[in-house]
Design goal:
Elements lengths: L8 H29 L14 E7 L6 H9 L7 E8 L5 H6 L6 E6 L10 H11 L5 E5 L3 E3 L3 H11 L4 E5 L1 E2 L4 H6 L2 H9 L2 H7 L11 E5 H6 L12 H11 L4 E5 L4 E3 L5 H9 L9 H21 L5 H25 L2 H5 L7 H21 L3 E2 L2 E2 L1
Helix pairs in contact: 1-7, 1-12, 1-13, 7-13, 12-13, 12-15
Length: about 375
C-alpha cells in the first residue's frame, strides 16, 4: 500500500490568509468605532474675539499661493486678523504674486535663498521666522497649497477653545488628481483613522499616540512659545507629529480632527513630486529601519495576503481571502466617505485597489530608506 504524501501547502496558506483576514476585520471594526470619536470642525462657529495670526511658509508656490492667501484674508468671524507669508527664497515668481496682493492685514517677508542654519530643516526654520512676526493669541500655521472655506479658522479656534486644547491638528481633504496619487495619498487619513485609538489618545494625551498634519495647525500662542515653538523640532522631518508630542510631553492637550469639511489640499502637481514628497519623510515615519520593516510588513501581510488568497485553489482559503479583502475595502470606504475623498463624489472604485495601495506604500518606504542612506533626499531644491 502506497500512501500519498500529505499536501500541507493549502493548509499553511489558509492559515496565513485566515490570520491576515481576521486582523483586517479587527482593524476595520476599529476604524468604524474610531470615526465615531473623530471630532470635526464646525462650519457655523461663533465669532472669534481674540487676535489671530495665520502664518504661511511659501517656497516656489506660484501656482498656489495667491488663492491660499486670499482664502486666509477671507476668513469670516475674525475681527483681529493678521496674515504673514514668508517668501522663502522662491525663484518662480512667488514673491511678485504676493507683492501684488494689497491688504493692510497682510505682511510679506522676502527671505533670500539661503540654507537653513545648522540643526534646522527648511520648513521648521521658515515657521520659526513667521512666529517671530506673529502678534495673535492664536497661531494658525497653513501650508501654501491649502484651500480654506471662509469659516475654517473660526471653526478650528472654536474647537481649540471649547475643548481647552493647546494644539488642534485638522486634516484637510486630500485632492489626488492622478491614478498613482489616488492609490497612495488616501492612505494618510486611512492610516491614523485605522491605527490610532483616537478616543484613548484624546483622554490619555500620550505622546506616542500623536497624529498630526502640518498643512493646518491651530496653536494657542502661549503653549507654542512654552515648548519653544519650532525650535523644539528644528531637525525633525515630521515636525508636525513632533510638535504634538512636544505639547503633550509638556503637559498640554492636543488632538487630531477632521478638517475635510472646511479645508482641502492638492499637495502635488505631478506623480514625481508625490514620490519626492513621500520619500523625503517616510523613512522617519516608524522611528527606525527595523520599525519601518515591521510596520510595512504588517500592513503588506494584513492587506495583500487576503487578496492573494482569492486566487487559491482551495475553496476555504478563497473564502477567508474574500473576507479579509472585503474588510480592507470597507475600511478604506468608511474613511473616504467621512473625509470627503474625491473617489466618493466621482463614484470611482478606488477603495477596491486597497491591496495595491499598500504595496505602493511599501515601495515608497523602501525607496525613502534607499535615498536616506544615499543622502540624496531633496525637497524644493534643498537637501533633507
Amino acid at each position: 500500500m502506497v500512501v500519498a504524501p500529505l499536501d500541507t501547502a493549502p493548509v499553511v496558506s489558509r492559515s496565513l490568509v485566515r490570520a491576515a483576514s481576521l486582523v483586517a476585520l479587527g482593524l476595520t471594526a476599529h476604524t468604524a468605532y474610531n470615526l465615531t470619536r473623530l471630532r470635526s470642525l464646525s462650519t457655523t462657529a461663533p465669532d472669534v474675539a481674540e487676535s489671530v495670526s495665520i502664518l504661511i511658509p511659501a517656497r516656489n508656490e506660484a501656482r498656489n499661493v495667491e488663492q491660499t492667501v486670499r482664502d486666509a484674508l477671507g476668513q469670516t468671524g475674525i475681527e483681529k486678523l493678521q496674515v504673514v507669508v514668508l517668501d522663502d527664497g522662491s525663484t518662480d515668481g512667488t514673491g511678485a504674486i504676493l507683492d501684488a496682493i494689497h491688504d493692510p492685514r497682510l505682511t510679506v517677508i522676502h527671505a533670500p535663498d539661503d540654507s537653513p542654519p545648522d540643526g534646522w530643516l527648511g520648513k521648521p526654520w521658515a515657521c520659526a521666522r513667521l512666529a517671530e512676526r506673529a502678534s495673535g493669541s492664536v497661531l494658525v500655521f497653513l501650508d501654501a497649497d491649502v484651500r480654506l472655506d471662509p469659516g475654517a479658522v473660526a471653526g478650528g479656534i472654536h474647537l481649540l477653545r471649547s475643548l481647552g486644547l493647546d494644539l488642534l491638528a485638522p486634516y484637510p481633504r486630500i485632492d489626488a488628481p492622478t491614478p498613482l496619487q489616488r492609490l497612495v495619498q488616501p492612505l494618510v487619513p486611512w492610516s491614523w483613522a485605522t491605527t490610532v485609538p483616537l478616543g484613548w489618545a484624546e483622554a490619555s494625551q500620550w505622546s506616542s499616540l500623536s497624529a498630526a498634519n502640518g498643512q493646518f495647525l491651530v496653536f494657542d500662542a502661549g503653549a507654542y512659545h512654552r515648548i519653544d515653538g519650532h525650535a523644539a523640532v528644528s531637525a525633525e522631518v515630521l515636525e508636525d507629529i513632533a510638535l504634538m508630542r512636544a505639547i503633550r510631553t509638556a503637559g498640554g492637550r492636543a488632538i487630531t480632527a477632521d478638517g475635510s469639511g472646511v479645508a482641502s489640499c492638492r499637495m502635488y502637481a505631478t506623480d514625481q513630486e508625490m514620490v519626492d514628497g513621500y520619500t523625503k519623510s517616510l523613512w522617519d515615519a516608524f522611528g527606525s529601519l527595523a520599525g519601518s520593516v515591521i510596520a510595512t510588513s504588517f500592513l503588506v501581510c494584513t492587506y495583500t495576503l487576503p487578496a492573494v488568497g482569492l486566487v487559491s485553489r482551495d475553496v476555504r482559503t478563497r473564502r477567508w481571502g474574500a473576507l479579509g479583502y472585503t474588510a480592507g475595502v470597507i475600511g478604506r470606504e468608511l474613511v473616504a466617505r467621512r473625509t470627503g475623498e474625491p473617489c466618493v463624489t466621482r463614484g470611482a472604485p478606488d477603495p477596491l485597489a486597497h491591496p495595491v495601495s499598500i504595496a505602493a506604500f511599501a515601495a515608497l518606504t523602501g525607496l525613502s530608506w534607499k535615498r536616506h542612506r544615499a543622502g540624496t533626499k531633496q525637497w524644493k531644491g534643498r537637501p533633507v
